[in-house]
Amino acid sequence: MRHWSSQEKKQFIRLGLLVAGTVLVIGALALLCMPFFAKIEEPEFQQQFQKWVYSLGWKGCLILLGIQIFQIIIAFIPGEPVELLAGMLYGAWGGLMICLTGILMASTAIFFAVRKLGYPAVVRIFGKEKLDEFKFFNSAEKAEVVTFILFLIPGTPKDMLTYLAGISRIKPASFLFLSTFARIPSVVTSTLMGSTMSSGNWEMTVLIFLLTAAIGLVGILYKDRILHRLRR
Q: CA-CA distance, 197 to 192, in Å (whole number)?
């Protein structure tokens, strides 16, 4: 049985405290902000929030950017309501730019934090059973191809995969570019829907919704097959 040196014990204790502290902070923030994210899907609340953001001027853009960053970091919170709201407030393309900026900033922070904290931190957040479903992502030889496919197809837990990327073989620049680029179709459909809702163009809103639902259905039907191929 291997005996740990005092220096190794100290490093392990520091890592454990850092991981525990990080989990506690994220958990506390999630609990504090959960009422907001629960209401953000309500049309009445969206209108009130829209008026408030407009009254803040350029600061409102920063607030929305902060919400997008927070949503990615927490990972358990769905991103679609935030993207819809971004489209309602700043239009399809303005909302897309804000969302992609937030995604890139949050993904960068998560990636390098996980590279520092290691696998135990990710296990504490998501649980080993959930991570085992995507363990092939950590050791995939063609990490770039796997990353692009996973972030492109609907239904995959993209925010959780951002954490997993930090302990995979992929290079930071490759991951950040590919994962952000692969999210564009999903994000732009949400921001475009939000924009048409804001302008009262309900026919286009319904059309985009039906198109998105059809693509999502195809993604759900073929997701397991794609994941099976990637595991092999």
A: 9
| Cβ-Cβ contacts under 8 Å for 109 (sequence gap 6 or more) | 69, 73
* Residue range 144-161, pLDDT digits in tens: 888 888 888 877 888 888
Taking the mean position of all CA atoms in its chain, how far away is CA 223?
18
Considering only residues 77 and 114, tell me which one the structure prediction assigns the higher pLDDT.
Answer: 114
Q: 47 or 5, which is more confident? A: 47
Taking alpha carbons only, the member of 179, 144, 140 closest to residue 163 is 179
The answer to whether residue 44 scores a pLDDT higher than 60 is yes
With the C-alpha atoms ordered 54, 56, 59, 60, is the resulting torsion angle positive or negative?
negative
Does position 140 have pLDDT exceeding 90, yes or no? no
Residue the block writes with tokens 């092939």: 136
Tell me, letter by letter, the H, E, C secondary structure of the chain: CCCCCHHHHHHHHHHHHHHHHHHHHHHHHHHHHHHHHHHCCCHHHHHHHHHHHHHCCHHHHHHHHHHHHHHHHHCCCCCHHHHHHHHHHHHHHHHHHHHHHHHHHHHHHHHHHHHHHCHHHHHHHHCHHHHHCCCHHHHCCCHHHHHHHHHHCCCCCHHHHHHHHCCCCCCHHHHHHHHHHHHHHHHHHHHHHHHHHHHCCHHHHHHHHHHHHHHHHHHHHHHHHHHHHHHC
pLDDT of residue 99: 93
Asked if residue 149 lies in contact with residue 111, where contact means CB atoms within 8 angstroms, the answer is no
Q: How many CA atoms lie within 13 A of 162 on its CB side?
A: 26
Q: How far apart are the C-alpha atoms of 163 and 179, rounded to whole Å?
A: 12
